[in-house]
Amino acid sequence: MADLRSLTKFAVNVIGIRMPGNWDKPLGYDGYARFVVVYWDYANDDVFITDGLTGESGGAWWLYTNLVERDARQEITSALMACGAPDPLSKWPLGDSDNEATHGLILDRFAHGLWVAKLNEAIPFLRQQHHEATPDKNATALALVRQRKELFEEETIRSFFPCHCNRGWILSLDYYVPCPECRRSGRIEVIPQQVIL
Hints:
The chain is α+β, with helices and mostly antiparallel strands. The protein folds into 2 domains: about 5-130, no CATH class; about 135-190, no CATH class. The chain has helices spanning about 5, 25, 60-70, 75-80, 120-130, 135-155, and strands spanning about 10-15, 35-40, 45-50, 55, 105-110, 115-120, 160, 170, 175-180, 185-190. Strands 1-6-5-2-3-4 form a 6-stranded antiparallel β-sheet. It has a two-stranded antiparallel ribbon with strand order 7-10. The model has no long low-confidence stretch (mean pLDDT about 80).
């Protein structure tokens, strides 16, 4: 069972950081697991988020880079050193465009906590939270239908102009919410004016 007590056996808490709720959603995570791990995927040169079973890259990479390069760089570096990462200042353990990740950031989605751990210990921990879950065939079928519909809608050629939001997401108090104007696309559809003769 994946819980905080078992997490503390191998992970180090990033002290002084409380993550905004829904921080994982702009990164591309749509699941319901309590714990997810985030790191930079060297192969795709993009941020990667996984709950141990499913993973996604290509999300809001700027949220991740803002966190690790500016907002919590010092706190994350301290936690990496406490976790045994060899010299995080010369070779970044969370991965970058030149180096494969050896460590990841574990986000506790329920308590808004942030932890650092070696990936080879974090991934098995994440998988433990799925043992009791059984796939719902109806939910899977509905998700596939919804995904197919979204793909067909994207094929239509429409004109757009940039939205004023932060690439489809707005930080409201302590939670990221989809922009109500552009609906997470970062672009607003321009409806052509009809010519009246």
